Amino acid sequence: MSINQRVREVRQKLNMSQAKFAKALSMSNGYIAGIELKHNKVNDRIIKLICFTFHVSEEWLRTGEGTMFEEKPDPLIELASSTFRELKPVYQEYILKQIDQLLEIQNKEKGEE
Length: 113
Hints:
- Helices cover 70% and strands 0% of the residues.
- By secondary structure, it is mainly alpha-helical.
């Protein structure tokens, strides 16, 4: 099963339409449809967003190994999630860009170790 198929499986397990799933992720439902049809790539940012928003295990989403959902939500993640949801979409997009930049820095640091 591909990562694209696992994204669809998460959405279906949550009993969400593509539109509701997309809205929760601040994405277009057309983009989600493209992911499910394997027209759009599932990048690191989307993986992190799905895991963060729906408490999905990142290992499962990336590889299919383990369980789909995390056992206990992290309180820090819960706080960040509730704060993020209160922001206007333009500010949410800004935060996501900052997260992307931090991930790039982190990945560069891992390469230097």
